[in-house]
Design goal:
elongated; mainly alpha; Serine Threonine Protein Phosphatase 5, Tetratricopeptide repeat; 198 residues; 83% helix
């Protein structure tokens, strides 16, 4: 039982290293969204909802594609579930464009907490199996903390909401890109070691 769990974690780690590009693309989307929100904090709530919807859908789609590309040896449930939650948040943003700032705040806060918990769980599962699992855990912790802060102080105002979300998503994007390149460099090192051994 324990041995099969280790093998599953190793398979997950190898799969993540092969699909580092999906995490990098999600990071780029997050950075673009964060920069737009920080450079244009006076944008209307409708534009913020649209930007968030696009970011959540793009990130979710990349996660689902990456999960679907996985091989049958090990479940990709954490990446698939995170992708589905992101897609659901994006669909909510598009389906109800008249969302108030308070409702949007709660949608984003719930999304941040759920995806953060999933990233922390993935980092724990992959501990010592991938290079850079700390980036994944740090991104998850940041998501949970920001989501909890949003719920704790919902009356911060629309401008503060835009700045909070912009800063959070920008940092999260940087963490995702850091993780992606750690995964990529670990994969390259592993491939070089295997070719030297052959």
């Amino acid at each position: 039982m324990y041995g099969s769990r280790i093998e599953m974690a190793r398979a997950d780690a190898a799969w993540l290293a092969r699909n580092w590009w999906a995490i990098a693309l999600r990071g780029v989307a997050a950075i673009l969204f964060g920069i737009l929100a920080l450079l244009m904090p006076a944008i209307t709530m409708a534009v913020l909802i649209l930007l968030f919807g696009v970011y959540a859908l793009v990130g979710g789609i990349f996660n689902v594609i990456a999960a679907a590309r996985g091989h049958s040896g090990s479940p990709r449930w954490f990446l698939l579930l995170e992708g589905l939650v992101s897609i659901a948040a994006g669909v909510i943003a598009f389906a109800w464009p008249g969302l108030t700032a308070l409702v949007l705040l709660y949608v984003i806060a719930a999304w941040a907490i759920v995806t953060g918990v999933l990233e922390i769980a993935a980092a724990i599962r992959l501990h010592n199996r991938i290079r850079g699992e700390g980036w994944l855990a740090l991104g998850g912790i940041l998501s949970v903390v920001v989501g909890a802060l949003m719920i704790a102080s919902p009356g911060a105002g629309a401008l503060a909401l835009v700045l909070w979300i912009g800063a959070y998503v920008l940092v999260l994007g940087i963490l995702h890109i850091g993780l992606a390149f750690r995964l990529r460099s670990g994969r390259i090192e592993a491939e070089q070691t295997l070719s030297r051994a052959a």
